[in-house]
Structure formats: C-alpha cells, structure tokens
Amino acid sequence: MTSNTLPSRSIRTYRGVAAVALAATTALLAGCSSSSSDSKSDPLSDSKASGDTVVVGANNFAESNLIADIYGEALKAKGVKVTYKPNIGSRETTYGLLKNGSISVLPEYNGALLAYLDPKAAPKTIEETTSAIEAKLDSKLTLLNPAAAQDKDTVTLNAATAAKYNLTEKSSIADLKTIAKDLVIGASPEFQTRQQGLVGLKSVYGLEFKSFKALDAGGALTQAALKKNAVQAGDIFSTDPTITKEKFVVLQDPKNLFGFENVQPLVYKSALNQTATDALNAVSAKLDTATLLDLDTQVQSGNKDPLDVAQAWLKKVGLSS
Fold it and tell me: Which neighbouring-strand residues pair with 172?
C-alpha cells in the first residue's frame, strides 16, 4: 500500500484492537482458547526462542492472528517446533522484534510494509513490491513468497445495486463508467482527495459519482450505509466478513489503482531451515483472497476458534496430516 493509503490500514488495525483484546481477556478467563495455550508466550517479551524453535508473531488484529496460526500449524505439520506471540501491536513494534530475533515469522502485507520502509515507493507489480522491500529490509530479514490473498481497499456495491446493473464479483470498476453518475459512494473523508480514492477513480477509470458521503475507513459506518442503501458503493476492505454476510459485491481492480496488499511472510533468516521455508511457501501457494475472506468470516462472524479454523483449512488443502 502506498503512503497515502497507509492511514486506512492503520485505522483498520486500531479498530480491531479492542475486539482482539476482549477476545483474549475472555479466553484467559475461560481458560479454553487456543490463544491461551502453553505454546503462546508474552507478545512483548524480547526473549529469544531456544534451540530450533520458530516463534510466530502477529499484530494486534484478528486477521493477523489467524494467519499466524495458519503459519504456525503448517510448520508444526512438518515437525518444526513452534511457539506463538499473538497480539503484539503495531508494525513499529513487530519490526523491531523481528530484527533482534525475538520473533521468527510475521504475517505481513507487502504494500503496507513497503510504505513503512519507503513511503515514496510506487511499484507497479507484486514482484517490484517485493524487490523494493528487500532493498530496504534489515539484512537479517527476508520475505518469502507472497500469497495471492490480499486485504486492501476496494470499490464495493451493495447487493441491490449489483443486481440492478447486472454486476458480479467478476465485474470491474471500469464497468461503473456509465452508471457512476447515478451512484453515491461512501468512504473515509480522506478518500475524497486521494489518488487511491476519488481522484484515481476519475483519472484511472473515468468515474464521476453522483456524490460522495464521508463515513469511515471501511468500518461500521460505511457498512451500515451500504446495507441501508444510503450509499450504493463504498470502500470496504477486501477480506471484511461483512462482504459475505450482506452479499456485497467487490469489483475487480484490473489497473491496480489500490496497489498491492498481498499477505507475505516476513522472517528472521537464521531462524528458518529449508523445511520451514518450504512449509510457509506452500501456504502462500494455496491462500487466495476468497479463501482468506471465508476464514476471516468463520472467525469474526462465526465466532470459531482461529486455531481450529487454521487447522481445518490446512487439512483441507493437504498441508497437514
């Protein structure tokens, strides 16, 4: 994600903190959640794992913790000893813990990581994104293969609007060109003046909407407005469970206006052997956006234990016994 969209990612992260903290507290009191298992350690501890243990960390929002469980369980399936540090905090904290070897593996989003390391970078492909990150990374760190799965800004329609204009999840933002004038779009206030917002939707796709409604960054206000048809289009993050629940339709972005936000493991080089590296690359080969949306929905809307969801998916795709 380029620097002018980083606030949306940050807002999304902070929005999830309270929910994750509440879930963690509830699990601690109940004494039954996977997050409170013996393999989960103090997330802010800078103690290094002993021997050949791989420490899988996560930022403090639900999707990061879910992906961390997927990574960890995939490693375990290959005989790798794993401990977890969930709910650590922001990138500023986790990057430091990676650099000093306190954590070995972290689920990252390539665009947001690049914006953190080099706010002026503007790659045009996933490969360029990875190369730009590698050029700025601490020498002790590296990226493994990116997944097809992305969690990024989108132009999303409510079900009624999509049906009215015969648009589906295979339709493109470009398909709005003749009808945008009849649609109200809702998003965060800054979306109105961003290239990765109304400015780019006009310059890249030729869209001029009927009007803009200032709401929030893919959050409850935008979701509610779409549901009530107060807006017909909105900026919803691509793996938000509301998409499934409300049958919203996310339009394709073939010109990559919204950049790249592929899930990609960031690792401490010396902590992983080839077996561990291969296990994580195998996860990336199987994880796409539709799958991540489904897994997020199971956890965040279906209230399933993320460890159970991770294990079930890995078994389904042949990455565990």
Answer: 252
Q: What is the distance between the alpha carbons of residues 53 and 222, in angstroms, rounded to a whole number?
A: 43
| Cα–Cα distance for residue pair 190/165, rounded to 1 Å | 28
pLDDT, position 41 = 53
Tokens of 249: 């339709």
Judged on CB neighbours under 10 Å (0-12, 13-18, 19+), 222 is buried
pLDDT digits (tens, 9 = 90+) for 78-127: 999 999 999 998 888 999 999 999 999 999 999 999 989 998 888 989 99
**pLDDT tens for residues 279-289?**
999 999 999 99
Helix %, strand %, coil % for the chain, to 5?
A: 50, 15, 40
Yes or no: say if 186 and 226 are a contact pair by the CB < 8 Å rule.
yes
In this structure, what DSSP letter does residue 48 have? P
Return d(Cα 209, Cα 319) in angstroms, integer: 45
Write the CB contacts of 28 (distance below 8 Å, at least 6 apart in sequence). Answer: 36
Sign of CA dihedral 132, 137, 140, 141: negative
Q: How many other CB atoms are there within 10 angstroms of residue 54's CB atom?
A: 25
Phi, psi of 185 (to 5 degrees): -110, 140
- Residue 199: strand, helix, or coil: helix
Asked if 85 contacts 47 with a C-beta cutoff of 8 angstroms, the reply is no
